[in-house]
Amino acid sequence: MSRTIINTDKAPPAIGTYSQAVRVGDTVYLSGQIPLDPITRELVGGDIEAQIRRVFDNLDAVARAAGGTLAQAVKVNIYLTDLAHFATVNQIMAQYFPQPYPARAAVGVAALPRGAGVEAECILHLG
Predict the structure, then answer these.
(1) Which residues contact 4 (CB under 8 A, 6 or more apart)?
(2) pLDDT tens digits for 11-51?
(3) How confident is the prediction for the chain on average, in pLDDT?
């Protein structure tokens, strides 16, 4: 099966050696998104809620560039520098992902790129 690289200017460009997403057949692997504004390429200001929303907005933009939506997510991984924000992630995620929700992991980490408080990645199945 061939690989298709997904790229959109509606989400921030990669800050490392990776693509925003890769599609193989009906499966799309979305790279981790931190709360970078796609225009300024800087971390969004505000509280953790603003960061979480920007992360999901970025994932949504990449999903759409791949020809899908977050409704087609089958797996989501979320990384938090403070697990006290777990409930906030749940509240906001429910606004972006319809039921039945995808499989998910939430992992506490010591640090994230650029000092972000949250990062998320996901896998879509478009079939």
Answers:
(1) 22, 23, 24
(2) 999 999 999 999 999 999 999 999 999 999 999 998 999 99
(3) 97
DSSP letters of the chain? Answer: --EEEE--TTSPPPSSSS-SEEEETTEEEEEEE-SB-TTT-SBPPS-HHHHHHHHHHHHHHHHHHTT--GGGEEEEEEEES-GGGHHHHHHHHHHHSPSSPPEEEEEE-S--GGG-SEEEEEEEE--
As a whole number of angstroms, the distance between CA 109 and CA 19 comes to 22
pTM over cut 0.70: yes
Per-residue pLDDT reduced to its tens digit, 43-94: 999 899 999 999 999 999 999 999 999 999 999 999 999 999 999 999 999 9
What are the structural domains of the chain?
A: 3-125 (3.30.1330.40)
The crossing angle, in degrees rounded to 10, of helices 86-96 and 48-65 is 40
